[in-house]
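W.,

You were right to be curious about this one. When I first looked at the sequence I had no strong expectations either way, so I just let the prediction run and decided to look at it fresh. Below is the sequence, 263 residues in total, followed by the output.
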Amino acid sequence: MGIAALVILYFYIIAPSHRHPDADKLLGKLYAHRGLHDGNRQVIENSMKAFSLAVDGGYGIELDVQLTRDNQLVVHHDASTARICGADRIITQTDYADLPSLPDGSPIPLFTDLLALVAGRVPLVVEIKSHGDHDKTAAAALAHLRVYQGPFCVESFHPQIVRYVRLYAPDVIRGQLASGKPYTGKAKSYISHFTHKHLLHNFRGRPHFIAYDCKHRASPSLLLAKSLFGAFLVAWTIKDQPLLDKARRRYASWIFEGFTPKQ
């Protein structure tokens, strides 16, 4: 295979969707990472209080969803409740009624409760987690979002979830999460790390946007996805004003945590 053919194949693999749905209500926005929490357990991440504070502040919200054993779609990041709740329960293996409470005494939110609270007032970035049956989780999230009246998009680290959205909800704005961080060998194989970093799964999901860990150097694939193919970029997770100021030059929207950004 000649060099030209390899270049064409590479472009085919990393290309995002050729369709560019209307994303005006999502772009140019600041999104509170897991709600507007404070990191010191006074306001808990992915809690109704954190979401309410984000809405009051006029910020968009980034959040995580996954299914319980009895098919309740909950808002929680980790596969286990141990880090946040202090009691170790694997969410996909536990009924909703048996999940521990958050440290403030409130229950782990249902996705329906979050949607009712926000009610379209601020845009949402919904990360669909791959814990458990990821196609089933994606289907549940899309079922709720199809009847939701408000701006939103979905994203995932798992290319199969992005592909599922592409196949079964092609009009929903979808994004591929990725990171340019160096390989550490802790969480995944080098091949898995490399393919995610360089967006070599894009041919599966054909995302509309790339959500990228902006603390690290942008990969050539990310720059090409933007400059050559017109994908918009979302920066995560910004933890201070200088990084936000830098990210504004390349990224179209910004997910922040741990400080009050200048609008």
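Here's what jumped out at me. Residues 23-256 form a domain with the TIM Barrel fold (CATH 3.20.20.190). And, maybe more interesting for your project: The chain has one domain: 23-256.

Coffee later to discuss?

I.
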